Amino acid sequence: IVEQELHKLYTLVYVLNKDKTKILLGLKKRGFGKGRWNGFGGKVEKGETIEQGALRELKEESNLDAKNLEKKGVIYFKFEGDPVIMDVHLYTTTDVSGDLIETDEMLPKWYNVSDLPYSSMWPDDPIWHPWFFEGKIFTVKFFFKADLETITGYKHKFASSV
Ligand SMILES: Nc1nc(SCCc2ccccc2)c2[nH]cnc2n1
After folding, report:
1. What is the 57 CA–ligand 1 centroid distance (Å)?
2. How far apart are CA 70 and CA 58, in angstroms?
3. Which residue has the CA at smallest separation from atom 11 of ligand 1?
């Protein structure tokens, strides 16, 4: 029998300053990824596009409105024992308005891109961040153990620049 893969859509938005020396991260205060610094994002809901979901999550979690989002790729996460693959659609923006606030989801903080708190971030981040900061557009799939900590493998592709 052909086993169908189950996918669930998510977004992840990174706000950078104009000269891309600083990046806005949020410390997740509850739920999935609690205790880790990350971009802003979450589930894409019924009736919204992926991009609308990204804008909504950024607003809900930081109070920032992004004028436009730049698509950087998709990161797929497969966790051992869980049939559902997470499709995390990755965006950046340098064009935001609104007053940054702490929400019950996220504690925001600006970091120098050269000095990110990787020991308190997801273990895959240092693997794909270099591609991301080099402006590459990529897809990458990570295989995790059920501990949400151990990466057993990954494979990636770069989008053709054409
Ligand atoms: N950087 C990063 N982000 C995520 S989830 C981001 C999307 C999300 C999903 C659910 C709630 C809020 C946000 C990761 N998962 C496994 N490694 C990971 N790395």
Report:
1. 13
2. 14
3. 42
